[in-house]
Specification:
The protein contains 21 helices and eight strands. With 467 residues, the chain is an alpha/beta fold. An eight-stranded parallel beta barrel has the order 1-2-3-4-5-6-7-8, surrounded by five helices.
């Protein structure tokens, strides 16, 4: 009997897409032992924006959060999303940093590492793959991920070639990451039909999509029909809108087709009952914005992923400029074309979104250009899928100058990042994980570690007084 497995996303991408990753560990701690028995292929619980959010907003140690989840869920694969050479930050890191991050992720409990590059420049995921193979164990799975989008240069034939390359690199599974939910059923049929014809059935295929445009359920159904083995879904109370399709809905649809899922129906439904009041709490305090819950078919035009949409809403609210939301959305396709049609996924989604907002708020296109966009034109993130706007390139680089065409991380295994972090933190650092947090997010990590030290000192003082 054929089996389709489900990855549950409520602890990471559903939470990220609907509420900008503001869910606290204490919100879901009690349900973890039950989730461990449901029968998911994996539970996506780390990576993406969770690391930044823990340090910046939740006053949590992301590494400790992962260790606690691992302890509560010993039997379920824990999954993370890794941005290749970007790790979980917004710039490229040197190879020794990437390798150590992967080592620590596995050490602290990660089983499935889904590795992607925002430009699908696979030079930028090789180091992370090699580290996963080096430090992994019998449970470890390296999943090569393709950022899916549509543009004049993103064709089914091109995607088949990408899959062949990922397979030859040695990945264990191949995932298509449709972050904006723009893959249609027809595209899924042509895409996965072509991939299966080219690769056969000897490497599992994964589809990650969102409900942003209303396409997800139809697309997932067609993808399963055409050979996909694993799909990403979200517990129903945190599904739909900019999140994923509902776990329960897809379970029932798949099971009624006579396909096995391995899911325990009763336990699956108990997970949803647990999270309902948590969703209500975040709706009541405005953390979940109603704009994130609806379907917006215009996303088929501007290609905005769920996490990017919720962050844009939050940022525009902070600037008292939410009235510019629709105008900023319409500017996104223009900026994307100028940047060479990058898939809108972190960090490119933030670059494109922030530049679009800047263009709208200043009333003039590229009056100010972010440093990240400048670095993109310099080639520091990799090769753009299509030619960039030459006038804008000349404005940034200067007339007659060309971007770099190499991995800027090549041979940079000097250890300088670690030495600098250790020197900057001093006695604030208590572990390799603390050092790594600082390398990824210096300001946020240092502030968190200072708060932690102060708390620890207060506990000691209180203990002495009590004694």
């Amino acid at each position: 009997m054929r089996k389709i497995q489900l990855t549950e996303t409520i602890l990471r991408d559903a939470n990220q897409s609907l509420m900008a990753t503001r869910m606290k560990f204490s919100d879901f701690e009690d349900i973890l032992p039950l989730m461990d028995k449901v029968g998911y292929y994996s539970v996506e619980c780390w990576g993406g924006a969770t690391f930044d959010s823990c340090l910046r907003y939740l006053n949590e140690d992301p590494w400790e959060r992962l260790r606690k989840i691992r302890k509560a869920m010993p039997n379920t694969r824990l999954q993370m999303l890794l941005r290749g050479q970007n790790l979980l930050g917004y710039k490229h890191y040197h190879d020794d940093v990437v390798e150590k991050f992967v080592e620590l992720s596995i050490k602290n409990g990660i089983d499935v590492i889904r590795i992607f590059d925002a430009l699908n420049d696979f030079r930028n995921i090789r180091t992370a793959l090699e580290a996963t193979k080096k430090y992994g164990n019998e449970r470890t799975i390296a999943s090569g991920c393709i950022s899916y989008t549509q543009s004049p240069v993103h064709t089914p034939a091109k995607y088949v070639e990408m899959c062949k390359e990922l397979k030859s690199m040695g990945f264990d599974t191949i995932c298509f990451k449709d972050m904006a939910g723009t893959m249609t059923p027809n595209e899924a049929e042509r895409l996965f039909g072509g991939v299966v014809d080219a690769l056969g059935n000897d490497i599992p295929l994964v589809l990650h999509t969102h409900c942003t445009t209303g396409m997800a359920y139809m697309t997932l159904d067609k993808a399963v029909e055409c050979g996909v083995d694993i799909i990403d879904t979200a517990t129903s109370c945190f599904s739909n809108g900019t999140s994923q399709a509902a776990t329960e809905t897809m379970y029932y649809a798949i099971e009624q087709c006579g396909i096995e899922t391995g899911i325990d129906e009763k336990l699956m439904n108990k997970v949803n009952e647990f999270f309902k009041p948590i969703k209500d709490k975040y709706l009541a305090d405005g953390t979940i914005d109603y704009k994130s819950l609806g379907t917006d078919s215009q996303a088929l035009f501007y290609k905005v992923p769920g996490g990017m949409l919720s962050n844009m809403i939050a940022n525009l609210k902070d600037m008292n400029a939410i009235d510019k939301f629709e105008e900023a959305l319409l500017e996104i396709p223009n900026v994307r074309k100028d940047l060479g049609y990058p898939p809108l996924v972190t960090p490119l989604s933030q670059m494109v979104g922030n530049q679009a907002v800047m263009n709208v708020l200043l009333g003039e296109r590229y009056k100010q250009i972010s440093n990240e966009v400048k670095n993109h034109f310099r080639g520091e993130y990799g090769i753009a899928p299509a030619p960039v706007n030459k006038e804008l390139e000349a404005k940034i680089l200067g007339e007659g100058k060309s971007p770099v065409d190499c991995r800027i991380e090549d041979s940079k295994r000097t250890g300088e990042d670690f030495k600098a972090a250790e020197k900057a933190l001093g006695d604030l650092a208590q572990s390799e994980e603390d050092i790594m947090s600082y390398i990824c997010y210096p300001q946020q990590a240092e502030a968190f570690l200072k708060r932690r030290k102060e708390k620890q000192e207060n506990v000691v003082k209180y203990s002495i007084v009590e004694a």
